[in-house]
């Protein structure tokens, strides 16, 4: 950055910049008062609060482009934000106060639904749950599903390449997206909203922006895949002794059910103990406790009877081969929803229990059981005050290997060990051939750790792409790299 560019970041220039933004999108959508900005500046876990010149809320792609061009003119960094549900400080500004938050919440239209092409074209600010409902209205399924779906936005899902509970069958957000509309760092509009399964016309620019966390450009709209609604969805909760048994059950389930196996979620007993403690309205499904549980779901395109036969055969075989100790099969949609509440309430229950250290990691599926055994032992050896709250999407190799302090242990003292605990966990992940971020992204929280685990060649290529697309480093600076 030149000296003259640095001098542009003065209070006077900010005032001129604010006036230009108001002229571009209207006074009501440029928030400068501290109370108006407050909810946009603090991360979802309430651990960090940044500062911003303003929160700017454009209402169209053209207005997003106009704001980006003004940011180039005045040399103002941009922090794109959707539902602000991220966990790695990717969607909040730093404390310098030199950036704007560009909120995409007003870009919330479903532009088109094509049930024959099995696509829907949607704007980045659409709430994920609303899109699920829009798909169901035409008897189609948008399979992306995660705990924050009532508040996260599809733009944020794309920016972080979100996973969720149905990756095993349908893939993550990248695999569900066919085309993007993007405002570049220069304020130009890349119009790539093509609903094509095959388009081999050069570099796949779409995949550059998905998972880039707003550091290369701003996703404003997308073409998403939708699918026929399954004829039946059946859910079972299975009790097991070890994660190794869960892997045996996964292999058995894939053999019995094939592509019908939609979800396969591993949960330790401590996870369900926390849910039972903080959500006492839920009745524990088993008469006795077990060390581990798997929540599995089948989505069948034939019939409920066909799905029931598959699931009952699977569970009978698992019990006969002593892979599991007990199982509960949901016999209604309400019971299925209740079983899923046990899984989906884990993060909330852990938050109510107190402060914790989160690890969103992925591993080769075959090595997950060994990773848990080894890493649990490493943590207990160095930090005996830890309680491991281990759960996640076993079917696609994604673990939420979270750590809470022992009951009565000082939270402040526990969090003072966060860097050391992260080092133990992430070094173990690396040794097992895994990744330190499976679906939450890098943001600002894991940026320095990325340098430890990515090769110099990979980091160099990422920096080259960043420099080529955002040479002035205005797009979400300080995030990812």
UniProtKB/TrEMBL annotation:
Pfam families hit by this protein: FAD-oxidase_C, FAD_binding_4
Molecular functions (GO terms): catalytic activity; FAD binding
InterPro entries: FAD-bd_oxidored_4_C, FAD-bd_PCMH, FAD-bd_PCMH-like_sf, FAD-bd_PCMH_sub1, FAD-bd_PCMH_sub2, FAD-linked_Oxase-like_C, FAD-oxidored/transferase_4, Oxid_FAD_bind_N
Cofactor: FAD
PROSITE patterns assigned: FAD_PCMH
Record keywords: FAD, Flavoprotein
Domain FAD-binding PCMH-type: 48-229
Domain of life of the native organism: Bacteria
PANTHER family, A to Z: BLL6224 PROTEIN, D-2-HYDROXYGLUTARATE DEHYDROGENASE, MITOCHONDRIAL
Family, as annotated: Belongs to the FAD-binding oxidoreductase/transferase type 4 family.
Entry protein name: FAD/FMN-containing dehydrogenase
